[in-house]
Amino acid sequence: xxxxxxxxxxxxxxxxxxxxxxxxxxxxxxxxxxxxxxxxxxxxxxxxxxxxxxxxxxxxxxxxxxxxxxxxxxxxxxxxxxxxxxxxxxxxxxxxxxxxxxxxxxxxxxxxxxxxxxxxxxxxxxxxxxxxxxxxxxxxxxxxxxxxxxxxxxxxxxxxxxxxxxxxxxxxxxxxxxxxxxxxxxxxxxxxxxxxxxxxxxxxxxxxxxxxxxxxxxxxxxxxxxxxxxxxxxxxxxxxxxxxxxxxxxxxxxxxxxxxxxxxxxxxxxxxxxxxxxxxxxxxxxxxxxxxxxxxxxxxxxxxxxxxxxxxxxxxxxxxxxxxxxxxxxxxxxxxxxxxxxxxxxxxxxxxxxxxxxxxxxxxxxxxxxxxxxxxxxxxxxxxxxxxxxxxxxxxxxxxxxxxxxxxxxxxx
Length: 413
Description:
By secondary structure, this protein is of the alpha/beta class. About 35% of the residues lie in helices and about 20% in strands.
């Protein structure tokens, strides 16, 4: 009598050949992520960030995580996009995009970019579903890793005191903070705010930080479009001695940025992904986005490829929960053009929504998670607290106009 053949246990790839999981529900939860102390920028005091945690549930019992950049996107996700996507195969990302997002020409005429950005959070979660189902870290689905340690800048700014956090507002105090970051974490890359005060303050910030970190560590500045062209010209002339690696958005548009190119060799970056103008004007030298700005991981990879073809660098900016940071890590691991350090504010977070969060850079780098998918899991207790803070107090104010020298944090939890 012949014994029945024992079937081998299916591998992740074999399971991926089975019927694709169908989307059964999409949750969008607005959360407040307060900073341990605020920082000053051109719009005033930034107390923290309000984000939207997205959960895409499937009939296979797999839930993918994503993150939207604005609390306004929660209603778009729940009311407009989710009904169009229920029942769609979670692994068919092109089909899901066509179902949820109108043609770009139509959208620009009637809706702006909010639908694209809101869908970008769902798209990240769909990638998470696909990678979890294949039992692979996401970077493996994106082609494999060209690097496993992802570079991030140490951030600095003027920060009023809040208990034991902050308390460095003068250029000398900001320099001392950066010196501490070198001593504690060996940080090789620094980036920080200018443009929020007068030009003399900006120059003294750069002078003190350069003195604190020494000549070999990279120093970049972020003016947040706070300078006009004459001020920017004067700033660039005086900043030359400090070996500035990059200045982000020194002025308000790419045409004005092009006017500055003849006055300096310092590279410029911007959050404006206008590649046609960049090709025409020769600026910026780097585009800095988050993963939802152009609609998720797949369209971001196309923007990165276009930047590479044009000789423009690309990096990510910070302010995300651990979900968004993890997504950055996987994309940066898989794309050879992403060796430039991305921005990092996670050192200043007082909480996160993922287990074990926030991420903590050491020697200016974070390790790519090796667990399936994004490699992070929700901390349900922390998520509940952050969601309750949003419901009770509303979104955190990034554009407060309080320029006082003292600070008392509003109730957040």
